[in-house]
Amino acid sequence: MRIFALMSEKSDIEIAIICQWDNQAIELLYDKYYRALVSYGCQFVEMTIAEDIVQDLFSVLWERRPFFNSISKFSAYLYNTVHNSALNHLRHQAVHNNYRQSIVDNLQEFMLLDDTLDIFNKEEIYRQLFAAIDELPPRQKEVFLLCMEGKKNREIAEQLDISAETVKVQKRRAIARLRDKLSPMLIEIILVLIRKSFDA
């Protein structure tokens, strides 16, 4: 990646554009660096994810309009952000998959202890549950999955760097949304599985 090493007389102009952050500035920088940043992101994640990461990056630039006094610092910011965002996506994907398996394991254990659940199709229970969870807003989904894994409120708060009260609020909102989409039986299963975390 030698994009910025080849800068010449345009550097001063681009620094001025970066500091100004008007519509023309963001369009120029977007056109200039979008493809290179997406290509860089594709070293870690698939194309569509890399494109989303770069789109989000420029949205943040537009909203925050940070100050850079050199092209090299701007370059480092762009590529470091794409790199970190791609790795975070991979970590979250791995964690999300682990959470799903944990939920399945917990449900299986619960169903073995309750013979009344034999009349229900277990695969359909999993399908309905995961479909409803996937429709939750991102923060509610994140909190709820950690809760289903068996983590207590304080553990979730520490892991997500939020307050325990925020965890409680997000959890309640998630359950309220799930009540609108799931049968009373499934809601009861969920409440049994996560009851301990409410006391934390």
UniProtKB/TrEMBL annotation:
Protein name per its UniProtKB record: RNA polymerase sigma-70 factor
InterPro entries, per the entry: RNA_pol_sigma-70-like, RNA_pol_sigma-70_dom, RNA_pol_sigma70_bacteroid, RNA_pol_sigma70_r2, RNA_pol_sigma70_r4_t2, RNA_pol_sigma_r2, RNA_pol_sigma_r3/r4-like, Tscrpt_reg_LuxR_C
GO biological process, one term: DNA-templated transcription initiation
Keyword set includes Transcription: yes
Gene3D superfamilies: 1.10.1740.10, Winged helix-like DNA-binding domain superfamily/Winged helix DNA-binding domain
GO molecular function: DNA binding; sigma factor activity
Keywords of this entry: Sigma factor, Transcription, Transcription regulation
Database matches in PROSITE patterns: HTH_LUXR_1, HTH_LUXR_2
Tree of life domain: Bacteria
SUPFAM superfamilies: Sigma2 domain of RNA polymerase sigma factors (SSF88946), Sigma3 and sigma4 domains of RNA polymerase sigma factors (SSF88659)
Pfam families, per the entry: Sigma70_r2, Sigma70_r4_2
Similarity comment: family membership: Belongs to the sigma-70 factor family. ECF subfamily.
